[in-house]
Amino acid sequence: MSFFAYLLRCADGSYYTGHTDDLTRRLGQHQSGECGGYTAKRLPVSLAWSQEFVTREEALAAELQIKGWSRANKEALMVGDWERISVLAKKSFMKKGGE
After folding, report:
1. Which of the residues 23, 56, 58, 83 has the least number of beta carbons within 10 Å of its own beta carbon?
2. Which domain range does residue 2 map to?
3. Number of domains the chain is built from
4. What are 14-55's pLDDT values in tens digits?
5. What pTM did the predictor assign?
């Protein structure tokens, strides 16, 4: 069985991050408003990024990490710009008092 972390682009331009074991079914649930909450109020939504993982724990860890990211980091992830993600992560670390 596979698990997925995913990012949705909502109609209002915001992003939603989640994880699931059935990406196609979950997207349908979000599109129909069945999931309720955040995405139901921002329809339609579209899949902006997803990644497959071996375990649910890995997918959940990715979801939680991405939820903590800035909008700029999420947009870099969507286009696969790992260099930009690295630069943004360093800037964030320095703002928090890192060396």
Report:
1. 83
2. 1-68
3. 2
4. 999 999 999 999 999 999 999 999 999 999 999 999 999 999
5. 0.86
